[in-house]
Amino acid sequence: MFEIAGISFHWYGLLIGIGTWIAMEIALINPKKIQKTLLESSMWWTIAGGVVGARVYHVIDFWNQYYSANFSRIFYLWDGGLGIFGALAGGMMGLGAFCVFNKQKYWIMTDSLVVGIPLAQTIGRLGNWINGELIGKNGEPLFAIEGALNLALFLLLIFASEKNLKTGQLTGVYFLGYSVIRFFLEQMRPIEAIWMIGSIPTAQIFSLVFGVTGLWLIFRKKQS
Length: 224
Fold this sequence. Notes:
The protein is mainly α. The chain has helices spanning 11-29, 36-61, 63-67, 84-102, 106-113, 117-131, 142-161, 169-185, 202-219; strands at residues 2-4, 7-9, 196-197, 200-201. The strands form two sheets. Strands 1-2 form a two-stranded antiparallel ribbon.
């Protein structure tokens, strides 16, 4: 954390904000079949849904340990606490609501928005490095490993976006790529840092759901 003119800034939140802004700018470079003003409007719905989803994911994770006894702090976003899969799910729902109200095709919108997301995630992981967190159970710098893999995924999406892909396939590449990254890296986290459902890490369950969705988007026959 640092201060400018008496205002406190948290590195993690600041870097997530910068990453989100860059991802938005990347989406606007080549909007593909969508008016830029419409795409800009959809971003705010997506971001709002993503913030809510990310917070809900975190609060559920830490409900018994903390929030059940500190209910008011659920709304203290500046204290940190966000979950990437909650952000993705919430962002998808926010964008879905936008598409319903504005009569837009969902997967066309996601294909435009998805390219910069792994770069935003890479930038966000720098916040973990500054905070000295996200270290593996054997001392591995998971923030750096995931950041590097997310950067590689971003480059793959840039390459894929130049190809003549069918609607939804670019989104599928991101879903599948990030799911594989997170599924395997989750095994390297300290057990006390993992949210479990039964004996299975919740992040791996979400990884499977997003991964299967990604495969469906890539290989489905009907495109819309």
